[in-house]
Design brief:
Blueprint lengths: L2 E4 L5 H13 L5 H11 L11 E5 L5 E10 L2 E9 L8 H15 L4 E6 L4 H6 L3 E2 L16 E2 L5 H8 L7 E5 L6 H7 L4 E4 L2 H6 L11 H6 L10 E5 L6 H11 L5 E3 L9 H6 L2 H8 L5 E3 L4 H7 L13 H13 L11 E4 L2 H13 L4 E5 L8 E4 L1 H7 L2 H6 L6 E5 L12 E8 L5 E12 L2 E7 L6 H21 L3 E9 L5 E7 L4 H16 L4 E9 L6 H17 L3 E6 L9 E8 L2 H17 L13
Parallel strand pairs: 4-5, 4-7, 9-10, 9-12, 10-11
Antiparallel strand pairs: 1-2, 2-3, 3-4, 5-8, 6-8, 13-16, 14-15, 14-16, 17-18, 17-20, 18-19, 19-22, 20-21, 22-24, 23-24
Length: 618
């Protein structure tokens, strides 16, 4: 394994030789290289002052070097060069990430990079952003700020070569520590992630939930992202080995153990772990926290955590509505309104309520007590009641079980305006509430489809009331004895107010985006927007090797945009109607939208390779 260490003064001459060989790799002529040589020379007395480190292989062979120059809050990536024979092996990535890590430790908040044009694609792929127009560095010869590392793709080399030789391309990065909430979530270290989604859902016994929990086993793949840095993943279904390799590469993880294929059907993941004493001992004996999707009795037994079923009281939509009502009765949340909700004692009582609302021309939200991702929630218009032949006919099509009849909140008149939003936070073991943030959700026909987190994702008018109300809910959950992750979902009404609709006492799709944003900010610089899309349709079912190839291609294509692609749910690719869950990240909304569009079109296009030739015309 390649490791990074501090350079030594006695290596100065050898390091200078590496720099010149690396610079020559791009085909510069002898005259240009000779002009560069004085600036690129490393002197023995500079090694420590310029904070030069080297990457070396297990045999002690030096493969590259990097320097971090200047002092907080502004510093420069002065040198980053890789031995030509090691280009393309991840050495540049390792050195760059080490520079960012050291910059954070030294309090640097702005890192300037003057890149050789041939390396511009590399820095773009690593998350550095182009400096504002007018800040491009120009030089007749390559100076101390020159950088040269392996490109991520051949396309990068071709694009960068179009820049005039001898002109440096200025980038910037914003080194950032891991977010405070993320450090508090798992103590700042690695964690064991337990994908017990089906087990969590099954404990509620709601008829709106799939008994086989097939969808939940797909969703359990999100266990890869239950914290910013896992040590082990425990998954019900077998996952492609190439998936975990790519996710680890994209998020800078090493040494992650994967225990998969434990439960192909049914909800008993943790029971399957407990039935394997050696595995249970390995997971619980590491001293690392165990992070589940949600709390269950089997998980409590595995983790040695007292099981208190009452902690999950507010997972009920009716109980959550009562909690919201009590909070609002205390005042202090003028931007929040609560839709009226009635729990029908019988199905026929629900039918009478629905019929009365339909006669008044009103739309109605029908909810089961529990549900997942919009399951068990149906919006019914007055016209739909009439078309179905009455309220009873509508109810006959819905899952059995308790029904909540709720006032429908009409949304903003602008169809492009923010409609569905959420707050994420958690209560730690000591009962302290930690704010994670607000997110914009994608909800289509009442079903959750994804979310976007990061700077500017949530409209400014909505963020303050969401954070204030979410914190109030967190305080009540903490007082009730709940410990763990939670969210509060909202819909925006036509007057620009927010209506809370439910709480989820577990991890969520938006929480996964927050985890990835925290990791990428620490790995690539602050300010990432992250979008999770639950379902990206594939044009065809692919064998595992071809799926790995597709994901690798999408990762490279997104990197050319300065974006990051992470396949989040790979197992759906093998369903009869194949799909992927994905994460994309970027430093701007424009790049994020472009990356998502690229991924969706690339996923759909895989079907073209199976299309036969067009039939001949007579």
């Amino acid at each position: 394994m390649v490791k990074v260490r501090a350079a030594r003064a006695v290596e100065a001459e050898a390091l200078t030789g590496l720099v010149m060989r690396s610079k020559a790799h791009w085909g510069y002529d002898a005259g240009f290289l000779a002009a560069c040589a004085p600036e690129l020379r490393i002197r023995p007395d500079e090694v420590t002052a310029r904070r030069i480190v080297v990457a070396e292989d297990p045999r002690g062979t030096v493969l590259g070097l990097a320097s971090l120059e200047g002092s907080a809050p502004l510093a420069t990536l002065g040198l980053l060069f890789v031995e030509p024979s090691a280009i393309g092996q991840g050495v540049g990535r390792l050195l760059y990430r080490d520079v960012l890590r050291r910059a954070v430790e030294q309090g640097v908040r702005r890192l300037v990079i003057d890149s050789d044009p041939h390396a511009a694609g590399f820095y773009r792929a690593m998350g550095a952003v182009a400096a504002p127009t007018g800040q491009t560095a120009a030089a007749d010869t390559a100076g101390a700020g020159d950088t040269n590392t392996e490109p991520d793709t051949p396309a990068h080399t071709a694009a960068a070569a179009a820049e005039p030789n001898g002109h440096l391309v200025r980038f910037e990065a914003a080194p950032a520590p891991l977010a405070g909430w993320a450090r508090a979530w798992t103590g700042g270290g690695r964690a064991v992630h337990v994908g017990n989604v089906a087990e969590f859902n099954a404990q509620f016994g709601d008829s709106s939930l799939d008994r086989e929990q097939a969808a939940a086993h797909h969703y359990a793949c999100l266990a890869a992202f239950y914290s910013p840095c896992p040590s082990a993943l425990v998954l019900p279904r077998a996952v492609p080995a190439g998936w975990t390799d790519l996710v680890g590469r994209q998020l800078g993880w090493t040494g992650v153990e994967v225990y998969d294929g434990l439960v192909e059907r049914g909800p008993g993941l943790v029971d399957a772990v407990r039935a394997r004493p050696a595995l249970a001992a390995r997971l619980t004996g590491s001293g690392e926290p165990l992070v589940p999707w949600g709390l269950t009795r089997p998980f409590g037994l595995l983790a040695g955590r007292p099981w208190r079923s009452g902690e999950l009281h507010y997972e009920s939509k009716a109980a959550a509505h009562g909690l919201f009502e009590r909070i609002l009765a205390e005042g202090g949340h003028p931007g929040i309104v609560l839709p009226a909700q009635v729990r029908a004692a019988t199905r026929w009582a629900a039918a009478r309520l629905l019929a009365a609302r339909a006669r008044a021309g009103k739309s109605t939200v029908l909810k089961s007590e529990h549900g997942v991702g919009g399951s068990g929630t149906t919006v019914v218009t007055a016209g739909q009641v009439r078309a179905a032949g009455g309220a009873r006919a509508v109810l006959r099509r819905l899952p059995r079980g308790p029904l909540l009849v709720e006032e429908f909140v009409a949304g903003p008149p602008d169809p492009g305006a923010a409609r569905d939003l959420t707050y994420d936070g958690f209560v730690d073991a000591a009962g302290k509430v930690h704010e994670v943030g607000a997110a914009l959700m994608d909800v289509t026909a009442g079903a959750y489809r994804g979310a976007t987190v990061g700077p500017g994702a949530v409209p400014e008018w909505a963020e303050k009331p969401i954070l204030a109300f979410g914190a109030a809910v967190g305080g009540e959950l903490a007082a009730s004895g709940y410990r763990g992750w939670f969210d509060v979902d909202f819909v925006a009404d036509s007057a620009g107010r927010l209506a809370p609709t439910e709480t989820n006492l577990r991890l969520t799709g938006p929480s996964i985006a927050f985890m990835v944003a925290a990791r990428l900010d620490a790995l690539r610089g602050a300010g990432h927007l992250v979008r999770i899309a639950d379902r990206v349709e594939l044009g065809a079912r692919l064998p595992e090797a071809q799926l790995d190839e597709l994901c690798a291609d999408l990762a490279r294509a997104c990197a050319d945009l300065g974006a990051v692609f992470v396949p989040a749910i790979p197992t759906g690719a093998f369903d009869p109607v194949p799909w992927l869950g994905v994460l994309v990240a970027a430093h701007s909304l424009e790049a994020l939208d472009a990356a998502e569009a690229l991924v969706r079109s690339g996923a759909e296009a895989v079907g073209a390779m199976f299309d036969g030739p067009a039939p001949a015309t007579p």
